[in-house]
Design brief:
The complex is a heterodimer of chains A (about 190) and B (about 180). Chain A contains 1 helix and 12 strands, in the order αββββββββββββ. With about 190 residues, chain A is mostly beta strands. In chain A, a hairpin with a 2-residue loop joins strand 3 and strand 4. Chain B has one domain. The chains are: A mainly beta (about 190), B mainly beta (about 180).
């Protein structure tokens, strides 16, 4: 009887120790300490490239630009100039430069298809001085790889497109329009390059 | 016989009175106090100070506002201070966890990034000793880096990667008695 009571007491004490340890979260381990690190969250930048002040929507393949003088009319004796200003508005945390390259322009008839685009003369040029306008630019033959310009973050570069009409062009019906495709590619320049 | 019994009882009382008066029946004795001193426990503590993010140029950045671009590597370093005391104290410093991408809908493509394991070194860049003692405790450095690989098109613009499960643990090692 006495032995049974002793056993019961031991069991009760054992349970009390376990319950007490669990209650305060203690362990039988040796000393230890731990600290949590919170480095934070890394975020990537956008790739915000603007053309004449407007962002190119992600995935877009075409943006429209209009002549510098919206009232300009194309005739054999008067040319039309279009400025294409490419802006680097990427919100990168560090230095970030892009290379903008202009391809060869091509014209195509829009709407009725009068063949006017065959009589177009198209030339491009970078605008070296932002204070100038495209009309005053000097146009030379574009290099084979096309005109290109390095554009730093928060900066822009302007290319000019001169559109002329040959003297052999027939007199098209008033309001005839042509669309000129001007390929533009913008690539990130590797840091340090 | 009755008198003998009474005498014995009185003798017994007399002895009892002696005891009550603080006397002893011992032979010569002496007493001395032992100066055993005070036992003091050692210490084991671990602190991680605020870390620092730097970009590839070594410039300190605020990662909450910094935007990474392809080809860039950001590095995080964090001082970790170990305090150990105890004549036979031996402890081990380890790192647990790594970065974890945020919600999949806005997380990086894992092929676009490289996240280095968190590395613990001494302040001079040497490997942390496997066993730390009070002689070797002090300041250590934890570091990890995040590289945004070259990608095509506009892959992984406006994505996030969260480092949220990194911890440092200092464990005392068993003492062999």
């Amino acid at each position: 009887m006495r032995t049974k009571n002793m056993l019961l007491t031991a069991v009760v004490i054992g349970l009390a120790v376990v319950a007490g340890l669990l209650g305060v979260g203690g362990t039988w381990a040796l000393w230890n300490a731990s600290v949590q690190s919170s480095p934070g969250t890394v975020q990537s930048a956008d790739f915000k490239i603007t053309v004449n002040g407007s962002s190119i929507p992600e995935g877009a393949t075409e943006v429209s630009v209009t002549p510098e003088n919206a009232q300009a009319r194309l005739t054999p004796s008067s040319k039309v100039y279009v400025a294409v200003t490419v802006g680097n508005a990427v919100n990168a945390g560090g230095p970030f430069a892009v290379n903008a390259t202009l391809g060869d322009p091509t014209g195509r008839d829009t709407g009725t298809g009068t063949g006017l685009h065959h009589y177009l003369t198209l030339r491009t040029s970078p605008l070296s001085d932002s204070a100038e306008t495209c009309a005053a630019s000097t146009y030379t033959t574009a290099p084979p790889e096309g005109w290109s310009a390095r554009i730093e973050k928060d900066s822009s570069a302007t290319f000019c497109l001169e559109v002329g009409l040959t003297s052999a062009a027939p007199s098209p019906p008033s309001g005839t329009t042509v669309t000129i495709d001007l390929p533009l590619s913008v690539e990130q320049i590797q840091a340090g390059a | 016989m009755k008198k003998m019994t009474t005498g014995a009882i009185l003798t017994g009382l007399g002895v009892a009175l002696l005891l009550g008066g603080g006397g002893t029946l011992a032979v010569w004795n002496a007493e001395a106090t032992s100066e055993t001193g005070t036992i003091a426990a050692g210490n084991l503590d671990l602190k991680a100070e605020a870390g620092t993010w730097r970009n590839g140029t070594g410039k300190k950045i605020d990662v909450t506002s910094y935007k990474i671009v392809p080809g860039e590597t950001l590095t995080y370093t964090q001082p970790v201070t170990v305090t150990l005391s105890g004549d036979r104290m031996v402890a081990k410093l380890t790192q647990h966890g790594s970065g974890i991408a945020s919600a999949e809908s806005n997380g990086f493509d894992t092929a676009s990034i490289e996240v280095s394991p968190v590395k613990l070194t001494t302040a001079r860049g040497a490997a942390v000793p496997n066993e730390l003692t009070p002689k070797t405790n002090g300041n250590f450095v934890a570091s990890t880096s995040f590289t945004f690989n070259d990608v095509s098109g506009q892959t992984d613009v406006l994505k996030e990667y969260e480092f949220s499960q990194i911890s440092y643990v200092l464990d005392q090692q068993p003492v062999s008695n």
